[in-house]
Amino acid sequence: xxxxxxxxxxxxxxxxxxxxxxxxxxxxxxxxxxxxxxxxxxxxxxxxxxxxxxxxxxxxxxxxxxxxxxxxxxxxxxxxxxxxxxxxxxxxxxxxxxxxxxxxxxxxxxxxxxxxxxxxxxxxxxxxxxxxxxxxxxxxxxxxxxxxxxxxxxxxxxxxxxxxxxxxxxxxxxxxxxxxxxxxxxxxxxxxxxxxxxxxxxxxxxxxxxxxxxxxxxxxxxxxxxxxxxxxxxxxxxxxxxxxxxxxxxxxxxxxxxxxxxxxxxxxxx
Amino acid sequence: xxxxxxxxxxxxxxxxxxxxxxxxxxxxxxxxxxxxxxxxxxxxxxxxxxxxxxxxxxxxxxxxxxxxxxxxxxxxxxxxxxxxxxxxxxxxxxxxxxxxxxxxxxxxxxxxxxxxxxxxxxxxxxxxxxxxxxxxxxxxxxxxxxxxxxxxxxxxxxxxxxxxxxxxxxxxxxxxxxxxxxxxxxxxxxxxxxxxxxxxxxxxxxxxxxxxxxxxxxxxxxxxxxxxxxxxxxxxxxxxxxxxxxxxxxxxxxxxxxxxxxxxxxxxxxxxxxxx
Lengths: 270, 276
Description:
The complex is a heterodimer.
Chain A: H1 2-17, H2 34-41, H3 43-74, H4 81-93, H5 96-107, H6 113-120, H7 134-162, H8 166-174, H9 179-190, H10 192-207, H11 211-216, H12 228-237, H13 241-269
Helix pairs in contact in A: 3-7, 3-10, 4-7, 7-10, 8-9, 10-13, 12-13
Chain B: H1 5-33, H2 54-63, H3 65-96, H4 100-113, H5 121-130, H6 137-161, H7 166-173, H8 178-189, H9 191-206, H10 212-215, H11 224-235, H12 240-260, H13 262-275
Helix pairs in contact in B: 1-12, 2-12, 3-6, 3-9, 3-11, 4-6, 6-9, 7-8, 9-13, 11-12
């Protein structure tokens, strides 16, 4: 009941609203697919799709690669292992919004921590205004996101690695498999459930990214790093309620397609 | 597998480097929050603060972070209670009675797990305004509960399926209704499910910003991320010591909860995630 009222109902209502020119107050008129046509004629919207996709692709790939590397590094016994695990996971529990602000303190051109650190180390070449030009600002956002959530993917991969019985990889070694072969032929297929959950959650999370961009760049410079979720919010406050729900429907499909594809892909291999 | 000495040293070195990379931003934040207002950014030493504790008192008074913390706590506790109560019962029904209707509801919930909240936020805003739920904590609890519901039903259904049916039958013989069977017999046994659910969703609810931005705009009702973003926008780049001190206050509760429960936390995360 509750779920129906606060999730399903708005979802269905949204489909209807996406076809009107409602401004949130007055009367809504049916405009058919006009909102969708407007969307694809809006250069800002198209750019936002591009930003969202690049951000998501970069984040999802890097998060999984880093998470898996961390997990492989951590998958042995050494002193302080649980401490290291806690430290690496720590950033993931903090609100991405607050994380964005913390990185803002580090990255501000001319006065951020990294500026001073590089200056003191004499590496002045590395100093730049990372946040004020488009490709580098997007790169920074991806890296901050990856930095924050690698710990999360790591924990899941680590659980996956530990569920592989040691006899299996032992047997492969006796059969003469090299480390590399053992990794690809034995570990990766047995990690499929972990890969699947990580890839799917990362795709969903990064395609609907909102918090970290709001605090780190506010979508700037200009609208260069604005994601679709932020666009939806701004259109809603800009009294284009009908239009913003249309954008939400488009975002829904942008998320649905890669999720279904990656689920199919990881299932077949299993 | 035996590893040679250098391999092991290299491994440890890399892990130390990763840990350092994870901690440095927190350290920088701490340094900033302890700098005297007169100090400009990182002038002088970048690693040693002035230990100007007064920042925290200032930040606390000016940022209304206290109210926000209380609001966040109410929202998180309320949401967890509602979802555990309803999601637990729903998961029980779905796990025990494989009727067509239950299968349909379960499939629907799992499908909706894939949909992030932002998709339906705008129509939801309209609904919330009609029922006067904007800027109310109970409204926010409803929204967050709806967002966390699929996860709750899914986790409970998976855990309950693994329990023997004889437990229910024995309880029924003793005269328990299905309702009291769940609360008296099943629920105490599946504490790990509850732990897993709380861990997977608790922080997300506490940190929620994408929904708070829409539904909690009044200053008296804002939650932590919302309060922080309003406070930061006020200063727009100046007074870093106060901004940093507020951020430190804001993250202290989560960090403490995490450190206290870290064992259960990592266990619950591994359990919950891999069952999916």
